[in-house]
Amino acid sequence: MSRHAAFRRAIPADARVSTWHAVDGWPIRRFDWPAAEKRGAILFQTGRGDVFEKYLEAFAHWHDAGWSVSAFDWRGQGGSGRLSADRNVGHADDFARWITDLADFWRSWVAEQTGPHVVVGHSMGGFLVLRALVDRVIEAGAAVLVAPMLGLRSPVGARAGGWLATLMRRAGDPARAAWKGHEKPGARIDRQSILTADADRYSDEDWWYARSPELRLGPPSWAWLAEAFAGTLALRCDPALVRMTTPTLMLLAEHDALVDAQAAAAIGARLPDAKVIRFGAEAAHELLREADLVRDRALAAIDVFLAERAPT
Fold first, then answer.
1. pLDDT for position 184
2. What's the CATH number where 194 sits?
3. For residues 15 and 31, is the Cβ–Cβ distance under 8 A?
4. Strand, coil or helix: what is 197?
5. What phi-psi label fits residue 186: left (phi over 0), alpha (psi between -120 and 50 degrees) or beta?
6. Who contacts 264 (Cβ-Cβ below 8 Å, separation ≥6)?
7. What is the DSSP letter of 17?
8. How many structural domains is the chain composed of?
9. What is the 8-class DSSP label of residue 54?
10. In what order do the strands lie in the sheet with 274-279?
């Protein structure tokens, strides 16, 4: 058990949960945990359906090292409201709205924080972070992409999956659920097995949702799925990747059942300044919530990277 385990089910006393309003007035739930040592500042971006409470243990690790840590729930999930009439469905007509939110938040956040300014993105958050960096709407001192969604796993393959999602988006209400479960189609899938081998850390999510059920989000919409396939393909083909010079660390789970680690590795090979670290069969999708053997290695790799590439 890590020495920061006590933070998994409690907002730290010196942290603050508040509301930031996007340029169009949309309320965005944010988390800020200032550090006294002023090592720098980390903005953490969660994955699809996530809430920042799931990562408090990792936040405590960085906070102890002197980093101020901030995060926010993406528009349409967590405590930032919903984009679908069915609040259980994770809907998005266009991922560009999320990029705009990130860019606007980043500008105000950087003005508030002592640098260096580091951005960390998990899964969908990793895709949105890289998209924002490639498009130069944010400028970070360093970036960490944890199991980034740079390609999606699909039972029928990415090309057919994207075609099917686009067809289903057009065939009915694009905001309807793509399936009944949470991350992946198929009622027989053991959800924990595709996220983490650590049952205790996995249970933290339900603990938080039991206390704040309004934060829970279910399956994606067909529109979200079509946007995810199209957006990740567009990024993989983007010639601007070779001009994205932000020092970047990628942590990939080779047996990830949700995102395509090989697609991410191929992008990492094209970035001018990127280091890719792979995890084997011992690791599932949520590397920062995995069993200690995996999680400790992931955090140590991030620590070394930031010491080298984001010095004070």
1. 64
2. 3.40.50.1820
3. yes
4. coil
5. left
6. 145, 148, 150, 151, 250, 252, 276
7. E
8. 1
9. G
10. 16-21, 27-33, 67-72, 40-45, 117-122, 142-146, 248-253, 274-279
pLDDT along the chain (312 residues), means of 10: 90 98 97 94 97 98 97 98 94 97 98 96 98 98 98 87 94 93 60 95 97 96 97 98 98 97 98 98 98 98 97 86
CA distances, 189 to each of 181, 205, 219 (Å)? 9, 18, 14
Going by DSSP bridges, is the β-strand pair 274-279/248-253 parallel, antiparallel, or unpaired? parallel
Q: Sign of torsion, CA 90 95 97 102?
A: positive
Which class for 267: exposed (0-12), middle (13-18), buried (19 or more C-beta within 10 A)? buried
**Is the pTM higher than 0.85?**
yes
Domain that holds residue 104: 5-309
**Whose structure tokens read 């990277």?**
305
The residue among 258, 104, 276, 98 whose CA lies nearest residue 191 is 258
What is the residue type of 277?
I
- φ/ψ of 143, rounded to 5, equals -135, 145
The three-point CA angle 61-64-68 to 5° equals 90
DSSP state of 74: P
Mention every residue, 6+ apart, whose C-beta is less than 8 A from residue 307: none
Strand partners, 19: 29
Burial class (CB in 10 A: 0-12, 13-18, 19+), 72: buried
Q: Report the length, in residues, of the chain.
A: 312
